[in-house]
Specification:
5-stranded mixed sheet, single chain, alpha/beta, 3 helices, globular, 5 strands
């Protein structure tokens, strides 16, 4: 299974970035082999539409699950429409997060965790 984790740095030892649309990187991991690809989030500094742009990029990477701190309504809608499950409220190291997912400790969210434009004013 391929999952995408929002991350502050391009490694498995990075912290989970609490923002989906404006995270620095995504670590896209094959949970069976633990092989991963670090993808710089080109939407992080967009003036608007970061969530939807980022969500489409994640969908295009053929991920089945997104793990992040928070996800707004526009991104959540794009991901859900593509069949990507969204897990929010996650923090800690990417590697530990993947293990928690594999152990069944993380459950998909039923709705966005923050209002629209939440990540725009986080000082980034």
């Amino acid at each position: 299974m391929r999952i995408a984790v929002s991350a502050s740095e391009p490694t498995l030892d990075a912290e989970v970035d609490p923002r989906f649309g404006r995270c620095a990187y995504f670590i896209i991991i094959d949970t069976d082999s633990m092989k991963f690809e670090a993808v710089k989030n080109s939407g992080a500094f967009a003036r608007g539409g970061a969530g939807t742009t980022t969500a489409q990029m994640v969908v295009d990477k053929n991920t089945e699950v997104v793990v992040t701190g928070n996800c707004g309504p526009n991104a959540f809608q794009v991901l859900s429409a593509a069949g990507v499950r969204v897990i929010t409220g996650v923090y800690g190291k990417v590697r530990d997060t993947v293990q928690a997912y594999k152990d069944g400790q993380l459950q998909p969210a039923a709705q966005p965790s923050v209002p629209g434009h939440f990540g725009m004013w986080s000082g980034r």
